[in-house]
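User: I'm writing a short methods note and want a consistent example. For Dyslexia-associated protein KIAA0319-like protein, I'll paste the sequence; you return only the structure tokens, no commentary, since I'll be parsing the reply automatically.
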Amino acid sequence: MEGQKSRTLKLSKLTVGLYEFGVTVDGDGAHGEGFVNVTVKPEPRVNKPPVVVVSPEFQEISLPTSSTVIDGSQSTDDDKVVSWHWEEVKGPLRDEKVSADTPILTLTGLVPGNYTFSLTVTDSDGATSSTLAKLSVNKVKDYGPVANAGPNQVIQLPRNSITLSGNQSKDDHEDLSYEWSLSPESKDKVLEMQGVRTPTLQLSAMQEGDYTFQLTVTDSAGQQDTSKVTVIVQPENNKPPVADAGPEKELTLPVDRTTLDGSKSRDDQKISSYHWTKTSGPDGVKIEKEDSAVASVSGLELGSYEFTLTVTDERNLRSSDTVTVIVREEKDQPPVARVLSSPPVSLPVRTAVLDGSRSTDDKGGLSFLWTRDES
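Assistant:
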């Protein structure tokens, strides 16, 4: 207040409210009082439209997620927001468009496509404001399949078959078709293939060499992937057989036959045949069961014989061994002298007969010599 003792009073920094003032006036023997009220009213309000806020302004989701929310509750006004109204202004074709009168818009059952929603808010003075929110709904992401033909394989003849497995191939929807084929680098290979449109491929009649196979998998959307696998067929690791004709033999006449035993011959797989032949020695020998492991030989004479055994395995590899048979003369045993005892002689008989006829020899042809024993 300024000029409290003057005719006029100046008021400043007034705020809204009711003020009461009194004034006293004194003059030539006179006195007077007066009162006055001053009312300060608030400044007249000019309504501002509400401020619309949506969150998020744009969002993107992918199926199988088919629901989301858009928040308009953060919209403001200089007085008060009294209503919210959502309207779908753009979206995929379907039975019903979205419409709601809530601060937060809840969306469900969404289908792939692009959506635009309008939010209009109204304040206490009826003023409105609007803004847009956009939403993109993507289809289910379909990743391409991953083919897996399995690890490389090695087999060795005589095995000539194998099964390849593509069961480790993958797809996000587990809906795959399979197709096996020879890769271009193996197109001239000859073999038998079964199950070319199944996860497992059966191979047979393979020959020595490298085979490369290609597995192509296709998903329900037509997306493909390929994988290769190599099968190496190694030659048979076959060692030749080892023939064993047995130890050397010695015979003494009159024994003129023996057996030849090759049963100790061996092979890393299997011996398929045996054959005995005489390779040296006197003629006239007969071999029985000459195509078996154990043979019989007869008609042997004095001398040295050599017999050869040849064995053959299943891969036609051969081996030979020899055995020597020596036939010796019958041994000459010393003669055996036998004298029959003589009956006693009584004089006047002066003669006696001594009999050595019972003496023997293994070959006969004895000669006799009688001598008197002086002892």
